[in-house]
Design a protein that fits this description.
single chain; alpha+beta; Jelly Rolls; TIM Barrel; 20% strand; globular
Length: 697
């Protein structure tokens, strides 16, 4: 190891320790030193595993003396890669058994670009799930409960399992107390149309003139269409005429012979085939990748910020974004670009058999399309999801505070303008709460670990006082030595681990907190709009059964499910709640088009994307609790990354509005008989797709 050295041009010393590469620390994969002294790593399909730090072996390193762990990998593949840092409080391997880390930090990198990645140790408190981007890096995600530097026993560099062996190089890895140099090479990776410059693929558009010609032909075709669904047994809402129910004028629920159905305002059975993010184009965040765009784009985004040392919150500065898709539409249609886009997209959706405009879609398009839709209340309300100035953990608010109830009232008022619209199926209360990503989370335990004052903590201390009567009995039950119950308000780290009774008390209060988190805003929404369906919280996944608390307020339980089929989570929720389920997000991506990452599910080709769509939806339809699923999303993401750095090939159309026909043809076929599959009259598609390990972060 190499010790302290001086920073250039300053009198201030940078404290840096360089980590030495050792074969003995490589647990999976291979490594060899190149002539340029960089280390080349080969990752097997199971993923690389290299021990960067061990408290036992690296006694000279005191982690508390540093602010950053820094790596500068270069991906040697034609596609992106997903890397992982794993933090362990105990040995990562016990005998032959690999242990789960207390925290995992995953991040993505573009191919062919040496990229400095500084890990700010502040993120180990797990208060931020998606940290701010740094130059060149794609999305970073934090998984796990808070971990203290003094408790870390091992840090390992790993890579996600891959569909083939992957290679990358690393010149060095070091701990430092100073934000490092994150400068990037100058290389245009995205063309003027928003396409990746580093490869060719079928239907890549040659130039601006060709793009405009394609868009005009697409619009001409859309304007000649009838505007109705291609299936004669569908009504104007996309419901099924052959299965009538009670007509109420609103979307509502019915149950027939154990099978749940949505019912549209015309009184016909309805299953929701939706698409999320129906917007013109997608935005590229320029700041972290400004060296990779053309001069024209760089000059137009004058507000770009290359790096923000010390800031962990994601920037949403509007001046930092550029929408290549919108620029393509403007170049083709001039000032009428938005109307032209709406005509084209509505034609696409109807021709594919899409009957629901999903979350985060353009509000002007919702009014134009006259199609069923859903809304995300946390995005459609200026208030956002109800919150308090002091949070318990991540975005979980102080739910016993009057401040939370007042925020819930303001949040609910935003529903009033939609309350009279029969095309509205219902509303999602929010999407993927950040606090709910942590497995086995006890939110009351995190409340006690947080030293801030909050009403919820006051209520808990009062409850414990009432239950135990005196502090001696409490200390005996909890394994603590508090002087009085006020000590509960001063911060206790990992309180649930102190005794079985402590865990039980905290679990009970945690469930009450989650119930209030849901019930207070749900009741406020119902008061504003008694006619539309409450579609739930759209949890990313069920990390703990306590997430079901408060679900009695939902008409439909929603979840985002990126499995091969939605059957497992649907069956799980149905078994617990006897309540119908709607999937808010799913997708599949492939690398045979113009991006460098699949998305959360990966398949081999565009044809296999179509197969995967049919398998997912039609297998889901065999479950009587399944009400439908919304595909994420209409457009491919930017090849250089959206606001947080996702750059997935998951769209139904590319940046020039060309549809992925193998995918959309399969969707149309699926939707043409989805009601018959749900009714048990037609067998579901049973050909599994060529599923592969995906590149995602």
């Amino acid at each position: 190891m190499i010790g302290t050295h001086e920073k250039e041009n300053t009198a201030e010393a940078e404290h840096r320790i360089l980590l030495e590469w050792k074969q003995s620390r490589l647990y999976r994969g291979t490594m060899e030193r190149q002539e340029d002294n960089r280390m080349r790593f080969t990752c097997p399909v199971e993923g690389l595993d290299y021990q960067l730090y061990s408290r036992e072996e690296d006694k000279a390193v005191r982690l508390e003396d540093f602010a950053y762990l820094c790596l500068k990998p270069e991906v040697l593949e034609a596609h992106s890669m997903c890397f992982q840092l794993s933090f362990y409080e105990k040995a990562a391997v016990t005998g032959e058994e690999e242990q789960e880390p207390e925290m995992r930090i995953i991040f993505g990198l573009l191919p062919g670009i040496p990229t400095m990645v500084p890990f700010d140790f502040h993120i180990l408190d797990s208060q931020v799930i998606f940290p701010e981007r740094t130059p060149g890096r794609l999305k970073m995600s934090i998984f796990g409960k808070p971990i203290r530097l003094c408790d870390i026993r091992e840090i390992r560099l790993q890579t996600a399992p891959g569909f083939a062996p992957f290679q990358f190089t690393l010149p060095e890895c070091f701990f430092t107390d100073t934000f490092p140099d994150c400068s990037l090479p100058q290389r245009q990776l995205i063309d003027d149309l928003g396409q990746w410059t580093q490869k060719s693929w079928n239907k890549k558009v040659e130039n601006r003139e060709s793009c405009s010609r394609i868009l005009h032909k697409l619009l001409e075709h859309a304007e000649k269409s009838s505007g109705g669904y291609p299936f004669p047994d569908w009504d104007e809402y996309g419901g099924y005429r052959k299965k009538p129910f009670t007509k109420t004028g609103w979307f509502h629920l019915e149950r027939e012979n154990g099978r749940f159905w949505l019912v549209d305002p015309a009184g016909n059975a309805f299953l929701s085939s939706g698409v999320d993010c129906i917007n013109p184009g997608v935005e590229t965040r320029i700041g972290p990748v400004e060296n990779f765009v053309g001069e024209t784009v760089r000059n137009r985004c004058s507000g770009t910020v290359m790096d923000r040392p010390g800031s962990l919150a994601m920037s949403h500065n509007k001046e930092d974004f550029f929408n290549f898709g919108v620029e393509n539409l403007k170049a083709a249609f001039g000032e009428n670009w938005k109307e032209s886009w709406m005509k084209l997209v509505r034609h696409y959706l109807v021709s594919w058999g899409i009957n629901t405009i999903g979350n985060w879609s353009d509000r002007e398009f919702i009014r134009f399309a006259r199609m069923p839709y859903v809304i995300p209340m946390d995005s459609f309300s200026r208030e956002g999801f109800p919150h308090t100035q002091t949070a318990v953990f991540r975005d979980f608010p102080d739910v016993f505070s009057p401040e939370y109830e007042a925020s819930a009232q303001r949040y609910a008022q935003s529903l009033a303008e939609y309350a009279g619209d029969p095309f509205l199926i219902g509303y999602f209360m929010r999407n993927e709460p950040a606090w709910a990503f942590v497995y086995d989370l006890n939110i009351a335990e995190e409340m006690l670990a947080n030293p801030a004052g909050m009403v919820s903590k006051d209520v808990f201390a009062e409850r414990m006082n009432k239950k135990y009567g005196d502090i001696a009995r409490f200390n005996q039950a909890w394994g603590t030595d508090l002087a009085d119950f006020e000590g509960l308000k001063k911060g206790i780290y990992k309180a649930a681990s102190r005794s079985v009774q402590a865990a039980a008390d905290l679990r009970q209060f945690s469930e009450e907190m989650i119930a209030r988190y849901v019930e207070i805003p749900a009741k406020a929404l119902r008061k504003v709009d008694p006619n539309h369906l409450n579609l739930g919280m759209r949890y990313a996944y069920i990390t703990d059964k306590s997430l079901l608390c408060g679900s009695g307020c939902f008409d439909v339980f929603s979840i985002n499910s990126y499995q091969l089929t939605p059957l497992e989570p649907v069956e799980q929720v149905a078994g617990w709640l006897d309540k119908p389920v709607m999937v808010g997000e799913f997708h599949q991506g492939a690398l045979d088009a113009g991006l460098t990452a699949h998305g959360i599910r990966g398949v081999t080709t565009q044809e296999q994307r179509g197969c995967a769509y049919r398998y997912y939806v039609e297998q889901g339809l065999t479950n009587p609790y399944f009400l439908g699923a919304h595909y994420f999303q209409l457009n491919d993401q930017s090849c250089l990354g959206r606001f947080d750095g996702e750059n997935y090939q998951i769209g139904l159309v590319d940046v020039c509005m060309q549809e992925y026909e193998a995918m959309t043809a399969a969707m149309k076929e699926c939707h043409s008989h989805m009601y018959q599959v749900a009714a048990g009259e037609t067998p579901a598609w049973d050909t599994e797709p060529e599923d592969i390990e995906p590149i995602h972060y």
